[in-house]
Specification:
Elements: H1 8-15, E1 41-45, E2 68-71, E3 74-80, H2 86-99, H3 120-125, H4 139-144, H5 161-167, E4 170-174, E5 176-178, E6 183-185, H6 193-205, E7 210-211, E8 232-239, E9 244-247, E10 259-265, E11 267-272, E12 282-286, E13 291-294, E14 303-309, H7 315-318, H8 327-331, H9 335-343, E15 345-352
Antiparallel strand pairs: 1-2, 1-7, 2-3, 3-13, 4-8, 5-6, 8-15, 9-14, 10-13, 10-15, 11-12, 11-14
Bound molecules: 2-oxoglutaric acid (AKG) and fe (ii) ion (FE2).
């Protein structure tokens, strides 16, 4: 059937695609604007504290027990609306742009260009290096790469850092996913330690949450977060036109641990469906700082991002002088470069335990 008729998931993707959603967001789960009236969600109580990792020299979380929700129709889909300090979001953006997309982590550009060790973002932001082209790979490397050779010739030319930064769509963290074998290559790259600590803190906090009255309702996450470790992950970079088609993340050997996912920058609509594309997905507005965890059943569910919402980056990220005086600003004084990027992009950083 699914081959002949349009699936419910595909219909929803079309409904939310760019340019035709003005009033449709009324039906989306939007915890920042109307949590109480939202019939699709149920408030829950975290049973464990969200502890700041010892490795980070400032506060990451605003509350130890922030408000949290599950989706009624999607058991195991947990949401924590932005529990982060503004500083933590700036720190995370910085990590995702400067620390993550560097060798040995892989990026989508690797097949065509020699990824600079200092990150494209750093090169594009630096007046002394931004006009030096990144060399393209030798033709034989391109032909040997496990990818379809793109039709547009631009990929076979050297590129300027700022132009290539716009083409950077993802990088992989920890065990690197091999698109040819469709398996993880083990031991290829250490997972960023700070991001791992942050993801572990979230995994612990969401362990067996309770009903909002402290009752023990089934919230769909039985996994003991103390066993969680970020073994593989992806940082996705979305410009305003980018989308992610519906899919299930099922490469991991074991699927019992939550997949934890963070958003920074522009908001988006996230669709969470069921085990097949025939289940009608629920649209959720994800905003900067929101934590989404796919636990239990929902770990096997179709999901995707049909649209990124223009003009939604919060002031503390897109203001060129944001955070002046805080720990992050002291370490990274060039915030205006980040502000420029975050005004037009969404970053998603996610972590999985694979074994
Ligand atoms: O960008 C998102 O929120 C979803 C990303 C995702 O589904 C993935 O990387 O597998
Ligand atoms: Fe996914």
């Amino acid at each position: 059937m699914t081959h002949l008729t349009q699936t419910a998931f595909r219909k929803a993707e079309k409904k939310y695609k760019r340019g035709q959603l003005a009033h449709d967001l009324d039906n989306a789960v939007d915890l920042a604007n109307k949590p109480a009236v939202n019939q699709a969600v149920r408030a829950i109580r975290l049973a464990h504290d969200l502890e700041d990792p010892a490795t980070v020299p400032f506060r990451l979380f605003t509350h130890k027990r922030p408000p949290a929700y599950v989706l009624r129709d999607h058991p195991g889909l947990l949401l924590i609306p932005n529990p982060f300090t503004d500083e933590a979001q700036r720190w995370l953006a910085r990590k995702c742009l400067c620390d993550c997309p560097r060798p040995p982590n892989r990026t989508n550009l690797d097949a065509f260009f020699d990824t600079p060790p200092e990150s494209l973002f750093a090169l594009a932001s630096d007046a002394t290096t931004c006009s030096q082209p990144i060399s393209n790979r030798a033709e034989k490397d391109i032909l040997m790469a496990d990818v379809t050779l793109p039709k547009d010739r631009v990929y076979t030319q050297p590129g300027l850092p700022a132009a290539l930064l716009e083409r950077q769509r993802w990088c992989t963290l920890g065990m690197q996913y091999n698109w040819t074998t469709k398996e993880y290559d083990r031991g290829t790259s250490p997972f960023d330690q700070d991001i791992d600590c942050l993801m572990r803190a979230i995994a612990i906090a969401i362990t067996r949450p309770e009903g909002s009255a402290g009752d023990s309702v089934d919230t769909g996450n039985e996994y003991d977060g103390n066993s969680f470790a970020s073994e593989a992950g992806i940082v996705n970079y979305y410009d305003e036109r980018a989308t992610m088609a519906g899919h299930v993340d099922k490469t991991e050997e074991k699927m019992d641990a939550p997949l934890i996912s963070l958003s920074i920058g522009l908001s988006c609509v996230f669709l969470i469906g069921g085990m097949t594309r025939d289940t009608e997905p629920t649209p959720i507005v994800l905003r900067s700082g929101d934590v989404l965890a796919m636990c239990g059943e929902s770990r096997m569910a179709y999901h995707g991002v049909p649209v990124v919402l223009d003009g939604t980056t919060p002031e503390f990220l897109n203001n060129p002088s944001a955070g002046t005086g805080d720990v992050v600003a002291a370490t990274y004084p060039e915030w205006h470069h980040f502000a420029g990027y975050l005004t037009h992009h969404r970053i998603n950083c996610n972590a999985r335990k694979c074994s």
